[in-house]
Write a structure and sequence with these properties.
The complex is a heterotrimer of chains A (255), B (438) and C (364).
Chain A: E1 5-10, E2 14-20, E3 26-33, H1 38-53, E4 59-63, E5 73-74, H2 77-89, E6 93-98, E7 103-108, E8 114-120, H3 128-138, H4 142-151, H5 163-175, H6 180-201, E9 208-211, H7 218-228, E10 232-234, H8 241-249
Chain B: H1 2-29, H2 47-62, E1 71-74, E2 89-91, H3 93-102, H4 106-114, H5 124-135, E3 148-152, H6 158-170, E4 174-177, H7 188-209, H8 215-237, H9 248-254, H10 256-260, H11 265-283, E5 294-299, H12 307-315, E6 319-324, H13 325-332, H14 342-351, H15 359-372, E7 377-383, H16 387-390, H17 393-404, E8 407-413, H18 423-435
Parallel strand pairs in B: 1-2, 1-3, 3-4, 5-6, 5-7, 7-8
Helix pairs in contact in B: 1-2, 2-11, 3-5, 4-5, 7-14, 8-11, 8-13, 15-17
Chain C: H1 3-14, E1 18-21, H2 28-33, E2 37-40, H3 62-72, E3 81-85, H4 89-101, E4 107-111, H5 120-141, H6 147-169, H7 178-187, H8 193-206, E5 216-222, H9 228-237, E6 239-246, H10 263-273, H11 284-298, E7 302-308, H12 312-327, E8 332-337, H13 345-363
Helix pairs in contact in C: 3-4, 5-10, 6-8, 6-10, 9-13, 11-12
Classes of the chains: A alpha/beta (255), B alpha/beta (438), C alpha/beta (364).
Chain lengths: 255, 438, 364
């Protein structure tokens, strides 16, 4: 199997590395929590990928730590996510990427170009962090969330805009005897409505895709689908879309 | 056009009031809230039924206004006395936004304008209003399209930007009465500027309404506006007695006519009714609370979506807001109106409203109200959406507390967007504040 | 020479007093005519200095909170007075809070410029306000304003505007990077006008028209070109400012030469001829048309809208501007800041992503 390129996405929460072939198909990957000492971590992960695949190739980097990676090219997560998504879908649309600490909405044109984008990276309340903090407080393991939400007969609304306020509100709701599944459903809806507002800002319709670690949470995907009133397609390897896009950027012949 | 006009008059004089009183009759069949043994409030005011009738009729009539009479959307501090004799039906977007606030409709309306790119950090009244305009959603059935937009910057500069957005949407003339802020004393050229703008306003309004401003009619409206202002002041003044016959929160709802119907007989008749009822309660020792233990001043706009919650939380411990700088503003705005020279006196009066004068003046008003109403404490609502009212409150709090020896709380909230409010945190602060009183 | 040292030197060598001026619009010509050095206060950026900012709630913009802190902590002690224009509700409040409730013990002046369209009432009023300010400044400086001196000051500032306009219009042909260009232009915020004019002319000699600049041209509308890394990041990413509507720069360049014989009329002309600004007019079309014109003349392929968080006048204009640019098919990058001293990594990413997007558009 010929490996043509490596991609590195150094996010603020997790570091993702991939080895891809000419079509953007993932051959191997590594994901770890990001170490503050980025260079040694990336070096180690790339070496491990080279050993596994028995091949070598150019390196593309993205993510907040991209400038610290010795790479052939460093592009922003916006451009890389668009490329990674287009490689998977072969068509335009709107990509909603929900990571640990930020949320991005990218409008991708029919040829895979970035037409418009919006980001929420200043406030936890519109990101995966919102869920993480409150689930942590409620002592609900992340893996169990989707299952719990599916059991809810009704949603208990959580109205606070701010994560800290929402935390207080949720504690009151639990103390007041509201069903946990309903509260969890309400939390997902609250987050989905904020993400939907961000998505509506990048105008127009079209197919809706989702990537990022949060896309692995089926309850979130469902809530977003409900908030936007359209089907949401979760991309394969949702966490690796940015890294794949970075690898594609250094493929021979890439734009 | 004639048919439309007939519909408008019928709606205002007959159908509206009938519908409103039917509605009131329906409500009377249900036991009124606050009458139960466990409520901390005194018996509810009888006049409130009439208030609801008036406002319901007013908004019902509004649905038939466009196409029948000229319609003006105006700011609360606008010298509306100049428009009345020209037959304008006036709509107050702030008043409408307050209703949206009370009914917790603002988040939905705001979402609609935020989708267009308006920031959530903007005044929640503006967001509610623009949201209502774009979506067509309103709790009052339908608002008539304006033929004229009229804003006066005495309450804030934000109305300038807000009304610019309305002008962009409706594409109708926008008249601005720009009142330079008063630092110390208004200079002669400042007052002349306002007078000149009022003259310009009249000419524009005449053109749009197709009527000439008759000096007699203007003088008559001025007289009514002044009388209405004085009557409102008399209502407020009853709060000086112990116990106060009503709550400051009642005041927030009962001020609707002096804002939206100023210069009309309906307004004045209502305040006579209210005043008489309040004086009667004073004579019989009936209070707004069952047991008034502490008297407070409220500064800034109310927290519309939590008015009853806050009032109840305080009332349960015997705390009543006996005066507010906000309701008081409407007892002062029209006080200098002189029917013999409406333009000059309106220029003077509207330039000197509380929000258009400097902080020393503001402190003076708070100090005076606190003394006259013998308050034990004050709550300054730090309204996220209203910078002109909120800037300076940190200092005002300290000065009021030290000069008068009273306890003062600065309470962070918003006047109509509940998303900027944490119920638990506010309850905590208010409770801690109350616990500090002997 | 540092700014404070320059201010001291102006006093010692020329007997000139200095007045700090809050944003945005003020009659600089009047101050110049009375031999007053105007020192514009557009921040300072970064964290508020001292704890004076605590007297203003956190939902008020950083311009005002930082100015409050700066004044209260003695940061402006090098000057003799402060001038507050009637820019917005927050500056309006600052102008009574600091002089009346403590924090600034020296002289405070206000310039309450008219709001709304040019009308007979506002022209008469502006004349009155200009003369009133002049009287107050005369008392402050101990000098008398004479018409000849005022006419001279107007001509001087008109020349400065012409020189600034010349540089701004030629920038796509100048070899200077944006950081260097703006560093020069911003010195006009505190230099004695004649010194600033000399620097502008000198710059033009050093950077005559040359070959076209490489990179993607963008139009920037915003408050100030701060922090310096904003411009560096933009240039580094492969774009440059081809047209600017910064309140501190482009929005105050008056391009029409004064024609009135009477200098007071000349001041009026210059006031009304300044580019549209959300803090003065309420005409929804004026600013949009002005920016679209700039877009066309400069060939800019993208727009950066920079707004300070909580700035009401600018925030209300954002949807109108976005709509107009969208109708033209011009991408817009919206940056909301708090007058930080350094760009956050998030903002750097946004700028780079935007330029990547524009550059790819050209390549496609």
């Amino acid at each position: 199997m010929t490996v043509l390129a490596f991609g590195v996405d150094v996010g603020s929460t997790t570091c993702k590395t991939v080895a891809v072939d000419g079509t953007g198909r993932r051959i191997a990957h590594r994901v770890e929590p990001t170490d503050p000492r980025i260079e040694p971590q990336v070096e180690r992960l790339l070496r491990s990928l080279r050993e596994e695949t028995g091949a070598d190739g150019p390196v593309g980097a993205t993510g907040y730590g991209r400038k610290r990676v010795p790479a052939g090219r460093a592009l922003t997560e916006i451009t890389c996510h668009a490329r990674g998504a287009f490689a998977a879908t072969r068509r335009g649309g709107v990509l909603v990427d929900m990571g640990g600490q930020d949320t991005k909405v990218i409008r991708i044109g029919p040829s895979g170009d970035v037409v418009d984008f919006a980001m929420n990276d200043k406030c936890a309340a519109g990101t995966g962090r919102f869920l993480e903090i409150i689930l942590g407080r409620l002592r609900v393991p992340y893996e169990e969330v989707a299952g719990q939400v599916a059991l809810a007969t009704r949603s208990v609304p959580v109205s606070s805009t701010c994560t800290v306020f929402a935390e207080s509100e949720v504690i009151s709701l639990v103390a007041g005897g509201e069903p946990l599944e309903g509260i969890l459903k309400g939390l997902h809806q609250a987050l989905a409505s904020r993400v939907a507002a961000l998505a509506r800002g990048t105008s127009g319709g079209g197919d809706l895709f989702m990537s990022g670690g949060v896309a692995l949470n089926a309850a979130m995907v469902g809530a977003l689908r409900d908030a936007l009133g359209r089907p949401v397609q979760v991309l394969p390897d949702p966490q690796l879309v940015g890294a794949i896009g970075a690898a594609l950027s250094v493929m021979p012949g890439a734009a | 056009m004639i048919l439309r006009r007939a519909q408008y008059e019928l709606a205002g004089r007959v159908v509206g009031p009938v519908l409103a009183s039917l509605d009131g009759w329906r409500r009377r069949k249900r036991p009124p809230s606050g009458a139960s043994r466990s409520s901390p409030f005194g018996p509810p005011l009888e006049s409130v039924r009439k208030l609801k009738e008036i406002m319901t009729a007013h908004f019902f009539q509004a649905r038939y206004a466009d196409g029948a009479v000229p319609v003006a959307w105006v700011t609360s501090g606008f010298p509306v006395e100049l428009l009345r004799p020209l037959g304008f039906h006036t709509v107050y977007p702030e008043n409408h936004a307050a209703m949206c606030g009370v009914q917790r409709l603002v988040p939905g309306l705001s979402d609609a304008v935020e989708a267009q790119g308006y920031s959530r950090d903007l005044c929640s009244y503006a967001r509610a209003d623009l949201g209502s305009v774009i979506t067509g959603r309103t709790p009052v059935g339908r608002l008539p399209r304006p033929d004229l937009l009229a804003c006066c910057t005495n309450i804030c500069q934000t109305v300038l930007y807000w009304y610019k957005a309305l002008a962009d949407h409706f594409r109708v003339p926008l008249v601005i009465v720009d009142t330079p802020y008063v630092y110390g004393k208004a200079e002669p050229h400042h007052v002349q500027y306002v007078r000149d703008q009022l003259e310009e306003l009249v000419r524009v309004a005449e053109r749009i309404s197709g009527r000439r401003a008759d000096p007699e009619a203007l003088a008559e409206v001025a007289r009514k506006a002044k009388e209405g202002t004085d009557l409102w002041a008399e209502c407020l003044a009853t709060g000086k007695t112990r116990p106060a016959p009503w709550t400051g929160i009642d005041g927030f709802f009962h001020m609707a006519p002096i804002v939206a119907l100023r210069g009309t007989d309906v307004c004045n008749d209502y305040y006579r009714l209210l005043r008489d009822e309040l004086r009667d309660r004073v004579a019989r020792g009936i209070g707004g609370l069952r047991e008034e233990r502490h008297r407070l001043l409220w500064d800034n706009l109310p927290i519309w979506f939590a008015v009853r919650e806050v009032a109840t939380l305080l009332a349960e411990r015997g705390f009543n807001f006996v005066c507010t700088s906000y309701t008081n503003a409407w007892a002062e705005a029209g006080a200098r109106i002189d029917p013999r020279d409406l333009i000059a006196s309106a220029a003077d009066s509207y330039t000197h409203i509380i929000l258009n004068q400097d902080l020393p003046n503001r402190l003076g008003i708070l100090r005076r109200l606190s003394r006259e109403y013998e308050v034990d404490g004050a709550v300054l609502h730090s309204d996220r959406s209203c910078k002109p009212y909120s800037i300076g409150q940190v200092d005002l709090k300290d000065r009021l507390a030290s000069e008068l020896g009273i306890r003062v709380l600065l309470l962070e909230a918003d006047h109509s967007d509940p998303r900027a409010w944490s119920r638990e945190q506010a309850d905590n602060r208010l409770t801690a504040f109350m616990e500090g009183f002997a | 020479m540092s700014r404070n040292a320059y201010i001291a030197r102006q006093r010692e060598a020329h007997g000139r007093k200095a007045v700090a001026v809050l944003p945005i619009h003020h009659p600089k010509e009047l101050l110049t005519a009375l031999d007053l050095l105007a020192v514009e206060m557009w921040g300072p950026p970064g964290a508020p200095r001292g704890d004076g900012a605590g007297r203003i709630q956190a939902y008020v913009c950083s311009v005002v909170r930082n100015a409050m802190a700066f004044l209260c902590s003695g940061g402006a002690d090098a000057v003799d007075g402060v001038l507050f224009p009637h820019t917005c509700d927050s500056i309006q409040g600052l102008a009574t809070l600091v002089p009346d409730f403590g924090g600034w013990g020296k002289q405070a002046f206000t310039f309450l410029h008219p709001k709304g369209p040019e009308r007979q009432s506002s022209r008469t009023y502006l004349d009155g306000e200009l003369r009133s300010l002049a009287r107050r400044l005369e008392a402050f400086t101990g000098r008398t304003l004479d018409a000849g001196r005022l006419a001279w000051a107007i001509r001087l500032h008109a020349e400065i505007d012409a020189a600034r306009a010349g540089i701004l219009d030629a920038r796509s042909r100048l070899a200077a990077g944006d950081p260097e260009l703006y560093a020069l232009l911003r010195r006009g915020e505190w230099l004695w006008p004649e010194d600033h004019l000399a620097e502008l002319r000198d710059f033009r000699k050093r950077f005559p028209d040359g070959a076209g600049r490489a990179g993607v041209p963008v139009l920037v509308s915003g408050y100030v070109p701060e922090p310096p890394s904003l411009l560096r990041t933009l240039n580094h990413a492969g774009a440059y400012v081809a047209a600017d509507d910064f309140a501190a720069v482009g929005r105050r360049v008056v391009r029409t030469a004064p024609t009135a014989a009477d200098p007071w009329e000349g001041l009026q002309q210059r006031y009304w001829a300044a580019p549209p600004c959300s803090t003065r007019s309420a005409d929804p079309d004026a600013r949009v048309n002005h920016l679209l014109g700039m877009l066309d003349r400069s060939g800019a392929r993208g727009v950066i809208l920079q707004v300070i968080k909580f700035c009401e006048p600018e925030l209300f204009d954002v949807p109108l501007l976005r709509r107009a640019f969208a109708a033209r098919g011009v991408p817009v990058l919206y940056l909301e800041g708090e007058l930080e001293a350094e760009l956050s990594g998030q903002t750097v990413t946004r700028i780079e992503a935007f330029v990547e997007m524009l550059a790819a558009g050209r390549a496609a």
